Give the backbone structure.
Amino acid sequence: MLKSLSIRNFILIDRLNIEFEDGFSVVTGETGAGKSIILGALALVLGQRADSKSIQAHAEKCIVEAVFDLSAYHLEAFFSEHDLEYDTRNCILRRELLSSGKSRAFVNDTPAPLSVIKLLGDRLIDIHSQHQNLLLADTHFQLNVVDVMSRTETLLKTYREAYGRYLSLSTQLTGLAEKAAKAKEEEEYLRFQYEELKAARLIENEQAELEEEWDTLTHAEEIKLALYKVATLLNGDEQNVIGMIKESVSAMTGLASCFPKAGEYAERLRSACIDLNDLSSEMEVLKEDIEYDPERMERVNSRLNMLYFLQQKHRVSSVRELIACRDAFEEQLQLIDSFDEQIASLTGQREDVCRRLTEQAAQISTLRKKAAASVEQQLVRRMQQLGMPNTRFRIEFTARPRPAADGIDEIAFLFSANRNEPLKPVAQTASGGEISRLMLCVKAMIAGFAALPAIIFDEIDAGTSGDIADRMAGIMRELGRNMQVIAITHLPQIAAGGRAHYFVYKEDTDERTCTRIRRLDGAERVHEIARMLSGATLTEASVANAKELLNLKPQADPV
């Protein structure tokens, strides 16, 4: 339950503290006194989007703090999941809105994101404002009512997980099909490029070797002449370098006995002679091997031209990069070839998930239809007790062609308030007062199932009066036996039914007009209800009527 609400610097409220009772309480006040402002502050602390214009002029920030008693609602798992301190008796939600536009939220003095505050707020209190009566015409709201009554929460959670998997597989399939279609369009081009590179039989170091061979072939005569000349100089028939070195070796060897260093020089000359002999032999072989070969030149030139052409075509500068291109084309072609297999696999997975979805949806639908019969009976009975004896109500089910996020059911609330009038969708047939009564009955019916600690009705009694208002007060009192109920009302019959009565009013100070609230007891409460009965001028009759209302027991049986 909501234990207290503290507000600082919010719109017309400079400082306000309210302590609430359990059971059924009422809030009254003149139109424009600020009841909606208090409700707005509570919505703010429960995670509603903030507006810096809500801060009072010249104030640095506004603060709204709500204290809840959670002892009967087993929210330990929620607090643990979001790493929040859990206090069953005093759970403090605080929202601070700064003049800069920034806002901060806290749970038991621990900073928390608004998304968490919103989730927690949805579990703590249901604020039913007047515009929410329009929800009765919303099929999602209608389906939610049936789900609450059929207790399908666990099944729906499992179903929605499977539905998420179904959507994911569908998205993957769509993306894969688009890729496959695009790839198919490019397949012929890719295959041509791959086959061309594959036919080239690329070898990584081939280009450098061919370029070297080309240079040799184009200078064959020049190279052959030079080799012949060097070979002749080294070891020709007449005077040659090797012969002169041999003579030098003999000269040094002859001096060895009288010139010790001559032996060393002789060895060095002998070693040089050996190297030159080897070099001379290689020259002889090379000059015979090198020949001008026009056919070979043509083949080398053709091969190099092909490599240069492929490099230019694929905008690369080496055979290694051409090989990488070839491998990439091959990988793309393999992927294209595998698309059909991947699509078949994903299609099979999706069909399996869809089959499970359909089974789960059918199970949920069965529970909904079973609960719908009970909902129809309860709402008719409650509406009859609110002065509508000819009420008829039916929940119409229509099967969707395929599973959706909430199952295969589309439902419609069909309603008729008058005898012989055909059943029609609620939005097409119910008046404002009828909608208010119907919504109160719905809320009363699902309150216990939803297990909310508190519910606030903001003028849910709009469009009703007299005996019907008395009966609505009876329903709220009945709800108050099991949960906290706070009703903001302009009807004296509703106001008189509350266990506690709070009065909202405006007060002029030297600086501004401020909204205030105080609890009414005794004569103050009598006078407020009398004012609601007769207006600003109190009469003895209105005061007597107010006292009678306050002492009046419910005329309607509890619903």
Remarks:
- The radius of gyration is 48 Å.
- The mean pLDDT is 86.
- The chain is about 55% helix and 20% strand.
- The longest helix spans residues 319-385.
